[in-house]
Amino acid sequence: MSPNGSALDTPPAGAGPDPIAARAHLLNADSVGTYRRTVIEGVDRVAARVATADRPFTGVSPEALAPLVAGIDLDRPLGDTAAALDELHDVWLRDAVWFHHPRYLAHLNCPVVIPALLGEAVLSAVNSSVDTWDQSAGATLMERRLVEWTVGRIGLGPGADGIFTSGGTQSNLQAMLLAREETHRRVVGGAAERPSRADVLSRLRIITSAAGHFSVQKAAKLLGLGAEAVLTVPTDAGRRMRTDELARTIARCRDEGLVVMAVVATAGTTDFGTIDPLPQIADVCAAAGVWLHVDAAYGCGLLVSPTRRHLLDGIERADSVTVDYHKSFFQPVSSSALLVRDARVLRHATWHADYLNPARAVEKGIPNQVDKSIQTTRRFDACKLWLTLRIMGPDAIGSLFDQVVDLAAEAWRMLDADPRFEVAARSQLSTVVFRYVPPGADPSVVDEANLHAREALSASGAALVAGTKVDGAHYLKFTLLNPETTVDDIAAVLDLIAGHASWYADTRSAAALACPVG
Ligand SMILES: *Cc1c(COP(=O)(O)O)cnc(C)c1O
Prior knowledge:
One of its GO terms (molecular function) is aromatic-L-amino-acid decarboxylase activity. This protein is of the alpha/beta class.
């Protein structure tokens, strides 16, 4: 309906869009030539931009870009692919952040493998929705094979299953949903007098380590438990969950009449790349009868590592596991999965609708994935991993991940030997947390100098690094996921950081001398 007329008004002859022209944009047997040309035009633009990206970022500010984006009239189409791609270049591609660049060292974003990009192009054109068989056919079976394959790599056993999700946050949320429902069932089943649901929910607690991911707190909020339901136990010097503290926290909850519904162990903490002691945590959980969820959003790449799979020992004892293929399997966003030891627990995500997934269809043995998912319409993201495995194979992916883990170990040694810097816990994966603090540095400016260095580096676009806090102090962080990054890149970026930080510290000290205040 137009803003100034009713839908029933007949448009004057000759006015309004041409219905036939509008239909020319639909992908169908008549338009495959346009489809090919259009997509190739886009691919060519990306290829040209990637080929000339000499920095990971241009350093553009939100203030500079916002007017360009705001100035575009979305109601007035350009009507032309080339013009739209030119405009896209101006508002996005020119200043995008390039994860493939060897000096992108910031967050858990990987360069992507070409077989997965092929998968992305194919899956969005076919547009299967992996919710029901009648919207996906083979795609449902392929996703199931990849779930089986992942479950096999983890070692969850013959009763296991899982589902692809949009990311680690969603995987963790669904894991907590399943744990909540299983725990609720157990508590109600074991009670002499049936407690109310509200009473049970108010007593549920989730335990993770102080280095766990914030999506656990978010999940607790979304599940009606509140972020306070998440208890964090301290980590040891290596930033791994302290098992003695975990056991103590579980005992304390029991004494207080609280019910621990899940322990979330992290296999690859986002900041420190450390892996909680999974076998010991599994022992504690088994003894207490508590659901063990392993958040391997980052560490899942070890599942295919030719040399380091043992770092995940104990993961096979989990009740549920999060993996993010879009972090350490070099897949484009989104690609993630939740795996569970006992397929039956996925029923907590099931609801039957007559129009979609009637119980009748399930009884007939028609496979569907919607009964296992908290989404309905869902992308066939599994296609990307499928083509990756079929073209490259798992060892090649594992080798890429191994290379960045080796690089991080080398970067840690460099930083440890460099008097300008201090390094935090040694990563088992591919992060390095450090800060600029040269001998004799004025402690009052160290935090600010590190913050400044990160911002100045980003504004120059020469390299991107992340920042975090360790015990209240500002640190910098490399997350290394690009096997093309070299030791020389790391050395050069450290020099840039030291340059920016020392300039800041010197300027501040000079200002303090010129104008002393208290
Ligand atoms: C990244 C990350 C998540 C969240 O995953 P998304 O895919 O970003 O939603 C969860 N846990 C850990 C440990 C992570 O590193």
